[in-house]
Amino acid sequence: MRLINGYLTSRNVKRTLIYFYNVNKGFIWFVLMLFVIRSTLLNWNYIPSASMNPNLVEGDLVLVNKIAFDIKLPFIGVNLIAINHPARGDIVAFERKDRLYVKRVMAVPGDTVEIINNAFYINGTELPLKATSLAIINNNALPYSSQYSFSAYQESTVIAPAKRKKNYDVIFANRLPAHIKDNLVNNSAEFTIPIGKYFMIGDNRYLSHDSRYFGLIERNQIVGCINTVIFNYQQLWKKITQQKTMDKLRVFQEIT
Questions:
Q1: Which class does domain 46-254 fall in?
Q2: With pLDDT > 70 as the criterion, what percentage of the chain qualifies?
């Protein structure tokens, strides 16, 4: 490569770039398409915490549908056109303070919310909690099972405007240490969700940092909707290395 007074000529730079592109164009287009897909259509993120147990488990790699609610600007990921809105019961990914969170939508704009003894009242109606039995709890399969015991319930919410009911599992940890128990939000005064904001909740009700503690989430913070676990990399590794015998792997598992 020729240098003139110690510097590359613009001609040489251009030739070098053209040569690099011709040699690597397949890989370059693959990377560009990957960025377009991840910024506008689909993304995949792992679950690092217990806040969405029992439906999402630490180590889950989940598929984030980024066009569930908005058409986004490629690469930047800025919302351009709203095509839908999050509904009660949806599991969504949202950004807060440069971190990605995954929670369930408990209340949408216009809803009134009140918490009484851990039960949620949406628009004056209590969301029913029905005691249930879950294999993941009975088999002590959650990472925190050695630390806590759990009570499992099925909660139901109404999806507007179709007025359909959506059922999903929630859990409450028992034997909580005092520093957690004393700071729980078990009750609240009634309040109304303003336009453009959403109330987010974790399915692991006592071990989730959510809107009860950090407040409401803006509509433009919501990245997409989550309905599928691609696989659980911790579980898969234990299976491959035969560290643990498992009846069923979490592979392309639909979640509610």
A1: mainly beta
A2: 80
